[in-house]
Amino acid sequence: MEITKMPDKSQIESEIQTHFQGEGIELERDEDLFSSGQVDSMALMQAVAHLEATYGLKIPPGDLVPENFRTVEVMADYVIQRR
Amino acid sequence: MLPLIHRFIDQAADQNPHHPAFIFQERSLSYGDLVLQANRLANVLIDLGVRPLDRVGIYLTKSMEIPVAIYGILKAGAAYVPIDPSAPLDRVDYMIRDCGITHLVSSPVRKRALHQLLERDTGLKAIVGVDRELLETDPLTCLSWEEVLQADSEDPPVKVTDQDLAYIMYTSGSTGHPKGMMHTHASGASYAHYSAMTYGVGPADRLGNHSHLHFDMSTFEFLTGPSRGATTIIIPNEAMLFPTRLADLVQNEKLTFWYSVPLALIQMLALEDIGNRDWSSLRWILFGGEPFPPKYLRLLMDMLPGARFSNVYGPAEVNQCTYFHVTRESVQGDQPVPLGRVWEGAESRILNGEGQPVRPGEPGELLIRSSTMMQGYWGKPDLTEKSIHIEEPLPGFTKRFYRTGDLVSIDEKGLLAFHGRKDRQVKIRGYRIELDELENIASAFDEVQEAAVVVAEQAGGDKELVAVLLLKEGRNLDSAEARKRFADHLSAYAVPKRIYFPATLPRTSSGKIDRRQLAQEYAETA
Which of B83, B243, B362, B370 has an alpha carbon within 20 to 30 A of B514's alpha carbon? Predict the structure, then answer.
């Protein structure tokens, strides 16, 4: 999806949730992606590719750490900080 | 005689009760404590009505509860059934009904999925590991882990023999539904015995459990490790998902054994700072599931001059059947690493299309007879019969071989090489997938006239799943909606990466869909 205007944090969060829903994964905004076990490596890679394409980011390998992806909220913070 | 699987932990606890059996994050569980906790869970399950031969589901992600669940269920005389926590509900629901699971061992982190599951009529009667307040549904019984830990810790007196059902492992089935492989105490314990012997596993070893419980590779850490009193480090999901964390864990936990698909190792090798890690504790690297590209294997061997490397092969139906200890010479060029030699516990045949043994170098289907072999597919006697080849060398004395479906050849030295599949089973990133299952799922979509799923190369040279769907006249479907529908039935790794809706499909002269043509057409040329 093409984003022309900078969305706010809450919009980014719902957009990320919608992405995961499309992959059959339901997530609360503050839910830990890792402890529940419903996100596998394929789903995580797809989420990374999705964030890059949707928000025009290039996520460097050094940023691929749990601290940037633990929850939907954390991912939105990361997107805002990287833009 | 081989012991029952659950006696592994009793024996290890007798010898060294304080030795750590499992480690997860900051927690360590000794063999003595594992025995007590498994006994408690077994008594709880028996109180809840579990009887010998019952199937009890394990619906847990990587956590310390996994070994307690495995050994507790076995000590109750029942069989455990690992359920993929990342699988969609339809698939979970199918497995529960398919093998008649009434009792589930789970944890509060699975709360949402459990809620949704209970909205369906699955026949579940009890869930252990979840507080009553989390799931207020009568007449379901819930019991928290805290309550389990209060239960009686005596070893329950249950009659089990080595021919009894120990676990059922589900894998992709060509009909559109997964199929369950039934393993007995004898087949599981045999695998533990032969793998421990082949790789010299001992109490000082520290095994890294990379594979999830619902994949057969995990039997090395959950069965083989305890059979020799070794310590298993359960690798948390976080480290599974981020190669940099995984590389740290190998160093920090001082692993001596590593066993995974090649991809996990290749991803760690790609880390910029991999050279800074101290992996000198590793003494043996096992890999399997798919071929290891020799150029990466050479890199890894350069990095770990003191370690041994082995290719592991065997369909989950037989656990494992060949081994190959990699030498420098065997990875000189770009030739794939051989599957290796049939190990001591197994007998093999390689038969051509006419059922005759092949000559050296000639490819044929590999058949395996072994004490590590499954008893059959749950509830599918026809499928079991089709997969078994019977010889009668003496009157009334028969040998049962499993038809692997893998095409192999054997050289003069007795080494097997892989040539492909007889059917449409594929391996993507080490995951076993039946293309027919995906086509059957897509054919059931209302809008779809015909479906083809193929493996196509992507730009980087990796393989990926591509679905090509021919829609009924006047009907519409977009790729996001189609993906969603696949995801309702399949784990993420099996969902086609790209989906296309062409107006026509290429045909062979006999009118069948030309899948080879499709695979070429949809390959991404860099």
Answer: B362
Contact: A38, B86; criterion CB under 8 Å: yes
In a domain, A3, yes or no: no
Chain CA centroid to CA B239, Å: 19
- Residue A30 forms contact with B (CB below 8 Å): no
Round to whole Å and give the CA distance between B43 and B152: 7
Assign residue A77 the CATH number of its domain: 1.10.1200.10
pLDDT digit string, tens, across residues B390-440:
999 999 999 999 999 999 999 999 999 999 899 999 999 889 999 999 999
Instruction: Give the chain A residue nearest B89 (alpha carbons).
Output: A24
Determine, yes or no, domain membership for A2: no
Residue B132's pLDDT is what? 83
Hey, what are A27's tokens?
A: 């997530």
- Rounded to a whole number of angstroms, the distance from the CA of A8 to the nearest CA of chain B is 25
As for how many domains chain A has, the answer is: 1
Residue B526 CA to residue B453 CA, distance in Å, equals: 22
Residue B4: predicted pLDDT: 96
Specify the CATH number for B7-234; select among 3.20.20.70, 3.40.50.980, 1.10.645.10, 3.30.870.10.
3.40.50.980
In angstroms, the CA B508 to CA B329 distance is: 43
Are the C-beta atoms of B74 and B166 separated by less than 8 Å? Answer: yes
Interface test with B, best of A30, A38, A46, A69 (most B CBs within 10 A): A38
Q: What is the C-alpha R_g of chain B? A: 23
- B60 vs A contacts (CB less than 8 Å): 37
Place of tokens 């909606």: B481
Q: With respect to residue A18, please indicate whether it lies within any of the assigned structural domains.
A: yes
Domains B7-234 and B425-521 share a fold: no
C-alpha span between B65 and A78 (Å, rounded): 33
Residue A1 has a pLDDT of 55
Q: Is there a domain that residue A24 lies in?
A: yes
pLDDT in tens, B88-115: 999 999 999 999 999 999 999 888 889 8
Q: Report the candidate in B72, B91, B80 with the shortest Cα–Cα distance to residue B55.
A: B80
DSSP track, B84-153: -TTS-HHHHHHHHHHTT--EEE--GGGHHHHHHHHTS-----EEESS-GGG---TT-EEE-HHHHTTS--
Task: Transcribe B425-437 into DSSP letters.
Answer: EEEETTEEEEHHH
**The domain B425-521 belongs to what CATH superfamily?**
ANL, C-terminal domain (3.30.300.30)
pLDDT at B526: 46
Sketch the domain layout of chain B as residue ranges: 7-234, 425-521
Tell me the H-state helices in B185-309: 185-199, 219, 225-227, 237-241, 243-252, 262-269, 294-303
Nearest alpha-carbon partner for B161 in B180, B182, B189: B189
- Indicate which of B238, B269, B429 best probes the interface with A, i.e. most A CBs within 10 Å of its own CB: B238
Separation CA B251–CA B369 (nearest Å): 39
For every residue of B470-482, which 3-state class applies, written as one string? EECCCCCCCHHHH
pLDDT at A3: 53
Per the CB < 8 A criterion, the answer to whether B216 and B260 are in contact is no
**Among residues B62, B67, B61, B60, which one has the least CA distance to residue B20?**
B67
- CB-CB neighbours of A72 under 10 Å: 23
Domain that holds residue A77: 9-82
